[in-house]
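Thread amino acids onto this structure.
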């Protein structure tokens, strides 16, 4: 069954301008070499040959035909990448730190997956983060409940709380599920715990230890590679799958244990690459909500970005690729662009009706008083 405008899954794909969008949630945000190469083959055989990496470290295949779904589902099930039903798939909304080592992380994720398999009934966007490496690094990503590393062990923290409740590794998942059930019983029409207006029954005891996010280059865990706009072609994913891949929420992948590699051209190897500060959604014609092309324009504008500035090119005001504010936002509307500064894609624009050729001068003129 396909739905338009739904938050897609593998079992509940969403119709878009270029066909169905099918979302895959790898367990613990990790793909084996065989899984990565098989997903690349599926994208080539049944989609448009491109794979998107989302902000919660999931993968999306685009351009899928309805007739291809049975074969895709069978292949994903064989790969261990398909849930038992759509409800279990939606509940398994877990973001896993990519910088874990010999710690509790993978065991916690497995226990949380098992607990969510049969409930509680939660909104599709309600999410968990298991951020239990040496320090918490997922604070910039969306999550309603977080299991994190603190100075004296683990904590459970709800979104909106600066401190969390101290828990042991054995207590963390049962306590997270208990708070999730508490939310489910009280939420009404609300979908996020921070907007509920009620403080969750958690003790505010310790803050998380915080660390830096991964950037492209060598890391103690392997080689980090950035994907421009979070997208990679099937053939490039095949070449990249030299080792198990850890997916990140920063539009990058980590090649476990790899120190250096001969990489496909076009991927981001350098932490200073301006493309790391640019977000762009699929845009037209791939997305039915967009009236403008986005990614080619974003790539052209990247080199001229002021130092440190962020840019978001959005096909419409929904801002799927980057719903938060950016220094410069270009929002598509009726075939042209609105220019917005220091806000999200639905904010009031400074300039309206810009064509692609007008945009560089409009940005320079608008930023001049601020530089």
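Threaded sequence (371 positions):
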């Amino acid at each position: 069954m396909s739905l338009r405008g739904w938050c897609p899954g593998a079992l509940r794909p969403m119709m878009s301008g270029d066909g169905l969008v099918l979302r895959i949630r790898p367990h613990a945000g990790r793909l084996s070499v065989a899984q990565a190469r098989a997903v690349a083959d599926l994208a080539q055989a049944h989609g448009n040959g491109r794979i998107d990496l989302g902000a919660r470290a999931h993968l999306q295949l685009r351009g899928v035909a309805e007739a291809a779904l049975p074969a895709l589902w069978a292949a994903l099930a064989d790969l261990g990448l398909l849930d038992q039903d759509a409800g279990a798939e939606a509940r398994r909304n877990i973001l896993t730190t990519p910088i874990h080592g010999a710690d509790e992380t993978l065991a916690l994720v497995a226990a949380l997956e098992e607990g969510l398999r049969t409930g509680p009934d939660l909104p599709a966007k309600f999410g968990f983060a298991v951020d239990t490496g040496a320090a918490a690094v997922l604070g910039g990503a969306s999550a309603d409940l977080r299991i994190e590393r603190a100075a004296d062990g683990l904590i459970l923290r709800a979104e909106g709380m600066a401190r969390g409740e101290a828990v042991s590794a054995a207590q963390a998942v049962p306590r997270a599920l208990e708070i999730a059930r508490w939310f489910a019983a009280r939420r009404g029409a609300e979908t996020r715990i921070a907007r509920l207006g009620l403080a969750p029954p958690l003790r505010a005891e310790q803050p998380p230890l915080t660390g830096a996010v991964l950037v492209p280059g060598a890391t103690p865990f392997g080689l980090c590679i950035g994907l421009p706009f979070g997208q990679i072609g099937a053939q490039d994913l095949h070449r990249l799958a030299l080792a198990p891949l850890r997916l990140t929420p920063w539009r990058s992948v980590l090649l476990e244990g790899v120190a250096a590699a001969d990489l496909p051209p076009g991927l981001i190897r350098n932490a200073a690459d301006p493309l790391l500060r640019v977000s762009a959604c699929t845009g037209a014609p791939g997305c039915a909500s967009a009236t403008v092309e986005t990614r080619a324009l974003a790539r052209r504008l990247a080199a001229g970005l002021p130092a440190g500035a962020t840019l978001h090119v959005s096909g419409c005001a929904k801002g799927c690729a980057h719903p938060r504010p950016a220094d410069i936002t270009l929002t598509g509307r009726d075939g042209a662009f609105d220019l917005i500064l220091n806000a999200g894609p639905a904010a009031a624009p400074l300039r309206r009706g810009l064509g692609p050729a007008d945009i560089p001068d409009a940005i320079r003129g608008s930023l001049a008083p601020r530089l």
